[in-house]
Design goal:
globular, 178 residues, 30% strand, single chain, 12 strands, alpha+beta, two-stranded antiparallel sheet
């Protein structure tokens, strides 16, 4: 059902075999997501590894209805590519002994957005020092992510997130948006 929903969204992806990769680390029900759809075009993804199908579906909806539409409204151009810092990584949450959502392919780190007109809006450079339109765009996409994902962390959360938006499906029963 998840793969059918993802396919109906216009995403281009490949289902991946289940893999167990270490204590608590796995890639179960994952896909290799290559491209998403906007209202008008295709949106490429860079540096994205295996991602659980439910997270891929959530990402597809957020990109189409939250990110691309916000880019058109605030920046006057749609999204051509989203630059990520990856998805799956068998590791703990920084400074803790608890596994990260990345360890089960349930999270993505978003670094920047390349617009159709060639401009690049980076979380690291434009969150605080970009134009007012770029800053507004980044805050709107951050807030729209909070409506779809269980946990969303950005530059205002801590220094470890100064250069990306961390989005994950999990939220331990309630959403956490910072």
């Amino acid at each position: 059902m998840c793969l059918a929903t993802l396919g109906a969204s216009g995403a281009r992806f490949e289902p991946l075999p289940d893999r167990y990769l270490g204590p608590g680390c796995h890639q179960l029900g994952t896909v290799k997501l290559e491209r998403l759809s906007s209202d008008a075009d295709r949106i490429e993804l860079s540096s994205l590894g295996p991602l659980s199908c439910p997270v891929a579906n959530t990402l597809a909806g957020w990109v189409r209805f939250g990110v691309d539409r916000a880019a058109r409204q605030y920046l006057g151009s749609g999204i051509a590519r989203i630059e990520t810092m990856g998805s799956y990584s068998c590791r703990n949450v920084a400074g803790s002994s608890r596994l990260s959502a990345h360890a089960t392919a349930e999270a993505v780190d978003i670094a920047a957005f390349l617009l159709e007109d060639g401009r690049r809006v980076s979380v690291k450079q434009d969150w605080s020092e970009g134009s007012s339109a770029e800053q507004s765009f980044l805050r709107v996409v951050h807030q729209s992510a909070c409506k779809r994902f269980g946990t969303v962390l950005g530059p205002d959360y801590n220094a470890a997130h100064a250069d990306h938006l961390h989005v994950e499906r999990t939220g331990q029963g309630k959403s956490f948006c910072r």
